């Protein structure tokens, strides 16, 4: 490459990589479990698979670009107007669209760190500036510091609750106090990717919050609680002008025909899917209690994952996990995030964590 070759914008080279969770290691005679991407261990329900199989027959055609049936199903389910919704290619697509629609180059996006790794990627890709506010020692957002970080250039604040990868969620009282300090011109995105897993006192009521705040957007996904990560469907709930801006910058046909079918069929089977969520929450409780009994000081886990702060022991922990057939997501020098998975996988994690302490 040189001056005579096409050059991407300078900020493109500065985009940090997205490190996808590793697949399970294949070892003869040993089942290995993938706990590295906060996926749902349950496969799609048979009725969802059937709906998808039926939709496959029309995959020679483009999808319904308006995703009309899915918008209507979501609108009915959530009790919000269709105009307040914006579907996307996963909720990560919404993060890109939000930054693209609201930030000029050099504008600032404030978020907690460590948090979801796609945030700095989306922000840098748009030539906006990432303003990272360290999480507190217990993994919670430092909302006071985040409010204090807002400047004249701030256009968006991302609040990840529950926070990936540390685990805690913000309370409604904390969110209200924060929103009271945020100027009305600043968009507050509440990333609720794991909202269905929250079991706490005073949980955030996202829908009530968006209804009472013209600058609040919720982002949600079918990837986690609904177990459709491979289909890539996310959605935003936002005041109509914001939702319209998101739809305007969306990728045409970004939600495939099979993805629309899977999401609709899942909404129709929500009670069964929420039973699975309940089982995963029970497993989460078992894992967290077991870890604390074993002397681990893990943060409150409100998503479908647990955070181990390990510092320079992170790589060793990931390697030891791999040895016992579980794949975790290491963050070099910081810690490891481990998804709640199959009961057997969670058993192995508990045994490993007891051994690793010694
Ligand atoms: N937000 C958070 C906090 C996440 O952890 C994830 C997935 N890891 C997403 C958004 C994106 O999920 P998806 O694009 O599958 O909807």
From TrEMBL:
CDD domains from the UniProt entry: AAT_like (cd00609)
PROSITE patterns in the record: AA_TRANSFER_CLASS_2
Biased amino acid composition, Pro residues: 1-9
Enzyme's top EC category: transferase
Catalytic activity: an aromatic L-alpha-amino acid + 2-oxoglutarate = an aromatic oxo-acid + L-glutamate
Pfam families: Aminotran_1_2
UniProt-annotated stretches for the region Disordered: 1-25
The Aminotransferase class I/classII large domain, residue ranges: 34-350
Keywords for this protein: Aminotransferase, Pyridoxal phosphate, Transferase
Superkingdom as given in the UniProt entry: Bacteria
InterPro entries reported in the protein's UniProt record: Aminotrans_II_pyridoxalP_BS (IPR001917), Aminotransferase_I/II_large (IPR004839), ArAT (IPR024892), HisP_aminotrans (IPR005861), HistidinolP_aminotransfase (IPR050106), PyrdxlP-dep_Trfase (IPR015424), PyrdxlP-dep_Trfase_major (IPR015421), PyrdxlP-dep_Trfase_small (IPR015422)
Cofactor: pyridoxal 5'-phosphate
Complex formation: Homodimer.
Task performed by this protein: Aminotransferase that catalyzes the conversion of aromatic amino acids and 2-oxoglutarate into corresponding aromatic oxo acids and L-glutamate.
Family listed: Belongs to the class-II pyridoxal-phosphate-dependent aminotransferase family.
Record NCBIfam families: hisC (TIGR01141), PRK03321.1 (NF002878)
Protein name per its UniProtKB record: Aromatic amino acid aminotransferase
Originating organism: Nocardioides koreensis
Encoding gene, per UniProt annotation: hisC
